[in-house]
Amino acid sequence: MIPASFAYHRPETLAEALTILAADDPGVKLLAGGQSLLPVLKIRLAEVGMLVDIGRIEELRGIRAGADGWLVIGAGTRWNEILEDPRIAVQEPLLHEAVDGIADLQVRNRGTIGGSVAHADPAADIAAVLLARDASVAVRSATAGRAGPVHGFWRGAFETALGPGELITEIRLPVLPPGAGGAYRSVTQAASGYPVAGVAAVVARSAGRIAWVRIGVTGVAEAPYRALAAESALAGSTGEPDALAAAAALVTSGRTVLGDPHADPDYRAHVAAVVARRALEAACARAG
Amino acid sequence: MSHEVSLVVNGVPRTCAVEPRRMLADLLRSDLGLTGTNVGCDTTQCGACTVLVDGRAVKSCTVLAVQADGSDVTTIEGLAGPDRTLHPLQEAFIACHGLQCGFCTPGMILAAADLVARDPDPSDAAIRHALEGNICRCTGYTPIVDAVRAGAAAMRAGTPEA
Fold it and tell me: Chain A contacts of B132, Cβ < 8 Å?
């Protein structure tokens, strides 16, 4: 399978990439690791006029400590670099657990976190985790920069809040409440590895009660989302099994659940509640 | 418009003029004649086309040749020694009968090479996890896992203790 012809440019700096984007040419598409985009081009679901390869821009790579204890991951950081960073395994076991399950070894060696967030696959594993971790997405254009919560960043299937001329520069993770525990659980479609439903939960207790909870859901609706009704149901509870199951049952509340040949909407909603319960149980077991 | 791509392939510097849409797998197979890199699904799923780029396993059907410009690439043809002595992983795939039709074998071996470079004594679970992106349609996975375990052991035995 051969993509339709396109031009190729590989800027060395972020400034150069942003200058190209500023022209707002609809034929221009950014290429990071290419593990989602290249298959799309090969089967000709899409055609581009020019690929701008941002894969070698050093300013977009790497993991660093940000202000106020935030952990900052450059958008161009590859999955294997996240997995192999000792800080991630220690500080972000939930992220580590989820990234280790993304696609396969070869794809993790090329694919980037920013590329995945920008691609906005409604079933991306990482989306559930970034929602549960209250991540912030930093974006830049040639003239301005901004950062905002990942909650709301995905507008629909393969659709984001990125504006004209903007690219994602960083994914930022805030400090967790003390003693917080997190887990990601999914049921995957065996051939593709994509989740039928995936749920990430982060829970923190205070005086024996759940004082803080975030639940991110992927693979279930047109875009990954935070299960706000389930979060509200858990806040202040003691986290007993019945309370977790009752909250998990609300995980698709208010959402139009997707159906496909692998899972009709009723079945997918059922799976979502099951993996939500499993994620909440594991998160509570890990929470101090 | 074609782009000039310079790579070191199996230790030999190579320069090719390619269209941007040319995949690394096609450069290796068609421009350089290295047909040990098999293309199976051509959709990033089967892993038959796995090669090492700067030491890491990638699916060469899903890497543009221009993206690999300046990289060090190892294909199955480059694993044997200069005297054509097989790599311990290759020997282990023969000894353990880790192949039936053989189509997936180059990709299996190169994915395993990436694993063993980082985890010299991998558990069976780690081997299976590392090979999730490699499909054997003869379904001979058990001897493949045996081969990776044996190959890793042979590599450890052949590495002088520090």
Answer: 104-105, 193
CA B92 – CA B96 distance, rounded (Å) = 6
Closest CA to A33 of A60, A14, A6: A60
Measured in angstroms, the CA of B81 and the nearest CA of chain A are apart by 24
* Three-state secondary-structure class, residue B158: helix
Residue A80, chain B, CB below 8 Å: the answer is: yes
pTM exceeding 0.90? yes
Q: Is B13 exposed, middle or buried (0-12, 13-18, 19+ CB in 10 A)?
A: exposed
Q: In b/e form, how buried is each residue of A112-132, taking b as 16+ CB within 10 angstroms?
A: bbbbbbbbbbbbbbbbbbbbb
Chain center to CA of A148: 14
CB pairs < 8 Å spanning A and B: 85
A5: nearest CB among B21, B43, B130: B21
Across the interface, of B23, B53, B57, the residue whose CB is closest to A105 is B57
Q: Which long-range contacts (CB under 8 A, 24 or more apart) does A146-152 make?
A: A147/A172, A150/A117, A151/A225, A151/A226
Give the model confidence (pLDDT) of A101-139 as tens digits.
999 999 999 999 999 999 999 999 999 999 999 999 999
